[in-house]
Amino acid sequence: MCKHILNAQVSIRAPCCKQWYDCSECHAEKQTHKLAKTMEMAFLCKKCKKAFRKDMEHYEDSDEFCPYCDNHYVIEAKIPQAVVGVEGEDARIDARMLKDERVKPKNNHSVFAIDPDEEAALLEL
Question: Is 106 within a domain?
Answer without folding.
Answer: no
